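Most newcomers find our protein records easier to grasp once they have seen one. A learned vocabulary of local backbone shapes supplies the integers on the structure line. An example says more than a description, so a record of this kind follows:
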Amino acid sequence: MTSRRILSSEKTFLEKDDSNDPTPSSSEKSDIAPVVPTAVILKLLGFTAAMVAGPIGVYFMTLNTIFHGPFLVSMPRLIKIENIAGNSTWAGATAAIVANVVLVTYVIVAMKEDQSEKLAAEDSAKKKR
């Protein structure tokens, strides 16, 4: 088997990494501004919370209210009405619809934001003329 030998004049990968100093020198000004604007992060967090809480909340809300109905139980010499657990299939379908609504809303908001940035760039280009 062939292996690569490191010569004494060559630096290993670790030594090469040590030579690159990530801290700026005193003459350089460090840029600590976030790469992603705060509004975008807050929007993403809001839609993430809606994607988690919306479908789960709608599932249990519809399971226990809308799709929860009386059920006839026939017993010998007695017919009584009992409330049993709701229809989880319909509640799950409703939760899936809510998840899709949140997703489509996020896509629409993202497209509008992209269009607004493009329009702002065009307006600034017109003002420079």
Observations:
- The longest strand covers residues 70-75.
- Helices lie at 13-19, 38-64, 88-128.
